[in-house]
Amino acid sequence: MSQPRKIIHVDMDAFYASVEQRDDPGLRGKPVVVAWKGARSVVCAASYEARKFGIRSAMPALRAERLCPDAIFVPPDFSRYKAVSRQIRAIFLQHTPLVEPLSLDEAYLDVTASSSCGGIATEIARRIRTQIRETTQLTASAGIAPNKFLAKVASDWRKPDGQFVVPPAKVEQFLTPLPVQRVPGVGKVMQGRLAALGISTVGDLRALPLEQLQALFGSFGASLYRRARGIDERPVEPDQPVQSISSEDTFAEDLPLGGFDELITQLAERTWRATGRTERIGHTVVLKLKTAQFRILTRSFTPDTPPASVEELRDIALALCRRVQLPADTLYRLVGVGLSGFRDREEVVQQGDLFRPQHRE
After folding, report:
1. pTM score, two decimals?
2. Is it the case that residue 125 has pLDDT exceeding 50?
3. Angle CA 260–261–263, to nearest 5
4. Three state DSSP letters for the chain
5. What values do phi and psi take at 45, rounded to 5?
6. Rounded Cα distance, 266 and 272, in Å
7. What is the pLDDT of residue 346?
8. Which of 63, 90, 129, 360 minimizes the number of CB atoms within 10 Å of its CB?
9. Whether 163 contacts 198, CB under 8 Å
């Protein structure tokens, strides 16, 4: 048998909020919420002091205010967060060239062939966390496991400022008691469908045969079967350019067209916030809808210049919604807002220069 891989998932602790608290000593020890105030704003990040009140990322800012009236709201500064992220990325690369960033604040590292720290993955993770603390005065948590799925779950095990290892011989023992919602892709709707089958833990899920899961959930059923057994063969892929970013949500009950404009606004904000984690620029706005009969529709629009604000993204998504020409009584169960057609920032600037009118003397 081949040697098990050694994968580390590093996740910064309350990254945006921690940067704000680091740079402003007056915020330390206080409930900090990184978000613009306003009826349509959502939370980008919350300090651990704010999380004690139930505040979480992607929560409407108004709800966060209600949960903690004393919370200190700080507008996000992605240029600062990106600068810190570059420092952290440089630390990762000292230990392995196989680094796959997921966002500004988390990444997978394949250290299977690394000679750092004697090739011991737990020591590499500990060393990386120490370097991050010394360089940025911030803390990180890490999960060490034979694959990406397990490493990501493990990194959340001893947050903040901790690490957890899942050895190959203990994968089944680790997974069996986990709530099924810890499996990627199992949201509230899928969790409800599994609960109706008497499935609440990964151990329960493992008891279902592949054929039954595929019959119930199609291709996602096969993914559930593999995850329940700790199988994940995806390699760590360094420097994968972002191609698309999207956010979607399933309604508690089916809604008519026009009945979910507020949710489109929230999804546009969520997608726009995610674009702040990449150096690339998206050109095409994509709207995704799923009818009550599970028919999927997409509409897209590519403006002459990329959307420059969350308001532009929202307005285009709402306009795309009006382009759906199904009967007025059609009900929908899901909506998504995304950006695609990403290009490098330098390429966008060069194209802008190319087509900008030239003034003659």
Report:
1. 0.70
2. yes
3. 65
4. CCCCCCEEEEEECCHHHHHHHHHCHHHCCCCEEECCCCCCCECCEECHHHHCCCCCCCCEHHHHHHHCCCCEEECCCHHHHHHHHHHHHHHHHCCCCCEEEEECCEEEEECCCCCHHHHCHHHHHHHHHHHHHHHHCCCEEEEEECCHHHHHHHHCCCCCCCEEECCHHHHHHHHCCCEHHHCCCCCHHHHHHHHHCCCCEHHHHHCCCHHHHHHHHCHHHHHHHHHHCCCCCCCCCCCCCCCEEEEEEEEEEEEECCCCHHHHHHHHHHHHHHHCCCCEECCEEEEEEEECCCCEEEEEECCCCCCCCHHHHHHHHHHHHHCCCCCCCCEEEEEEEEEECCEEHHHHHHHHHHHCCCCCC
5. -165, 160
6. 10
7. 57
8. 360
9. no
Q: What is the dihedral of CA 259, 46, 245, 277, to 10 degrees?
A: 150
Rounded to whole angstroms, how far apart are CA atoms 361 and 346?
A: 28
Residue 308: which residues within 8 A CB-CB, separation 6 or more?
Answer: none
What percent of the chain has a predicted confidence (pLDDT) above 70?
93
Q: Tell which residue, 109, 336, 113, 340, has the closest CA to residue 235.
A: 109
144's tokens: 């060490």
Which residues are known to be catalytic? 106
Query: What is the distance between the alpha carbons of residues 136 and 283, in angstroms, rounded to a whole number?
Result: 33
Contact between residue 295 and residue 334 where contact means Cβ atoms under 8 Å apart: no
Q: Give the confidence band of 218 by pLDDT, cuts at 50, 70, 90.
A: confident
Angle formed at CA 284 by CA 347 and CA 355, multiple of 5 degrees: 40
CA distance 346 to 338: 22
**Percent with pLDDT over 90 in the chain:** 66
* Identity at 120, one-letter amino acid code: I
359 vs 195: CA distance, rounded Å: 66
Question: Taking 60 as the threshold, does the pLDDT of residue 347 lie above it?
Answer: no
- Kindly report, residue by residue over 273-332, the tens digit of the pLDDT: 888 767 778 899 999 999 988 888 999 999 988 998 999 999 999 999 988 989 989 999
Q: Which amino acid is at 311?
A: E
Name residue, tokens 């000679």. 115
Of the candidates 109, 84, 102, 91, the one whose C-alpha atom is nearest the C-alpha of residue 23 is: 84
